[in-house]
Amino acid sequence: MVPMQDMDDLLNAHPFFAGLSPRLLEELAGCARNERFDAGDYLFQEGGVADRFYILRHGQVAVEVKAPHAGAVVLETLHTDDTLGWSWLVPPHHWTFDARAVTLVRAVSLDGVCLRGKMETDHELGFHLLSRFVPVMGERLRAARLQMLDLYAPPGLTPPA
Amino acid sequence: MDAAAAAALADRLTETAAAARLPASLTEGDPWRPRPFRIDRWRRDLSDTFTVDLVPLDGPPLTFAPGQFNMLYVHGAGEVPISISGDPDQPERLVHTTRAVGQVTNAMKALRVGDTLGVRGPFGTPWPVEAAFGHDVVIVAGGIGLAPLRPLIHAVLARRERFGTVVLLYGARTPEDILYRAAVTAWRGRFDMSVHVTVDRATGRWSGPIGMVTKLIARGGFDARDTMAYVCGPEVMMRHAAQALIDKGVAAERLFLSMERNMKCAIGLCGHCQWGADFVCKDGPVFRYDRVAARLAQAEV
Questions:
Q1: Which of B210, B233, B237 sits opposite A74 (nearest CB)?
Q2: N or C: which end of chain B has fewer CB within 10 A?
Q3: What is the rounded distance in angstroms from the CA atom of residue B239 to the CA atom of residue B218?
Q4: Of the ranges B12-26, B111-125, B216-230, B240-254, which one carries the lowest mean pLDDT score?
Q5: Does B48 touch chain A (CB under 8 A)?
Q6: Which domains, from first to last, does chain B contain?
Q7: What does the alpha-carbon distance between residue B284 and residue B81 come to, in Å, rounded to a whole number?
Q8: ipTM (interface pTM)
Q9: pLDDT (mean) for B136-155
Q10: With an 8 Å Cβ cutoff, is A65 touching chain B?
Q11: What is the domain partition of chain A in residue ranges?
C-alpha cells in the first residue's frame, strides 16, 4: 500500500496529470492504487465492466481483439507514461477490447466509479480530466486512421483514398 | 526513337543544359550517357524488394553524398531513378535497393550477378550531414524509406563523435517487412545509438511496439530543441512524422525529408518531376521542411 502523499507525488510526476492543482491531485489520489501485472496477464478483457483506467509506469501493454482463425490481433501497444482505457467514462461502461501485459507492467489504476462520483459534483475535476482524455482519444484515432491506410503496402495493394 | 534521332535529341538537350548553366559536375562528363556497371552481388531483402551491389566496368568508382540518387538503365527495359543506399565512404561498391513495382524495376529484379546495368549520376541534393555537427540526430524511416537513409546512417556513425544523441525510429508494415534486418539489429546493439522499430501489424512472435512511427517520435529520447531530423517514407507518413517532430519541439528549418517524383532526365530539364516551383531531381530529392511544408499539404502538385 502506497501512502497517500506518495500517490499524490506519483500522479503529479505523470505527464497525463501535469498542471493539476494539489487539491485535484489529492482527489484523484483518493481513487488511485498501484497495480502490477506479469507478462501475459490481462489488465481487462472485452465485455468486462470498465470500472477503472490505468496510467502505465513501466512496461508494455497490447490492446488486442480476439478474431476467429487469427488468434489475438494486436491493434496497438502502449508503453511507459501512456494512458489506457476510457470506457469507464462512457455508458454502459464495458471494455471494447482486451488489454494484455506484454512485459511486466507496473501501473496506477484509477477507480472509475469513485471518479464518476466525484466528477458528478466536482465539475472542475471533470473538466480537467476530460480535457486530458480528449487529446489522447484524438491521438489514438489519428494513429488508427493512419494504420488503416496501410501506408507501407506495395503500390496496388494500397486501398483507394 | 532511332539512333540518329536519339543523338540529335541528346545534342539538343546538351545545348539546353549548357544554356541552363548547369553545374560543371554535370556537364563535364556526359550526364546523358550511362556508364556500364556489373552486378557483383544480388540479394533479396523482402518479397518485392532487392539490393544490387554494382562495380564499374571501366573508370573510377562513383562517389556520392548520402541522399543522392542514380538513374539506372536496364537494357531493353528503360531507366529509373533509384536512391543510393550504400556507404558513401566505400564508393567502390555502388549499392541500390529497389522495390519491383513497374516494368523496369521488374526487369532489374530478373538480373543476376554478372549482368550489366547502365548508371547515370549521382544526382540531386544530399542529406546535410555536417550541418548536424554538434546536434542530436533523429532519423525517421517508414517502409523502404530506410533505403535512402542508410548512407546517412553510415555517414553519421563514421563521424559519431561529432554528434550528440543519435536515434533511428523506423516504422515497417509487419516484422517480416523490416528492411536491412541484419543492419538494424547491429545498430540496435550499439551503445552509441538508439534504435526503435514499430510495425503496423504483427503476426507471430513480435514483442515490440505496434503503432505508427509518430508515436515513437512523441516518446522522445532526444533533445528536440537541438536536433536535426531526417525523414523518408511515404508522403503521408512524412507529413505526420514532420508534424510530430515539430510538436515535439524540432525546428522546421532543421527538418529534412526526401521526396519521390517521376524523374526522367535527372538534371532539371524535362520537367517530369516538377513539384511546384522545384524540380525534384535537381532541387531535391532532399528538401528542407519549412521550404516545402505548404506544398506538401496540397494534393496533385
A1: B210
A2: N
A3: 15
A4: B12-26
A5: yes
A6: 34-123 (2.40.30.10), 130-258 (3.40.50.80)
A7: 13
A8: 0.83
A9: 97
A10: no
A11: 4-149
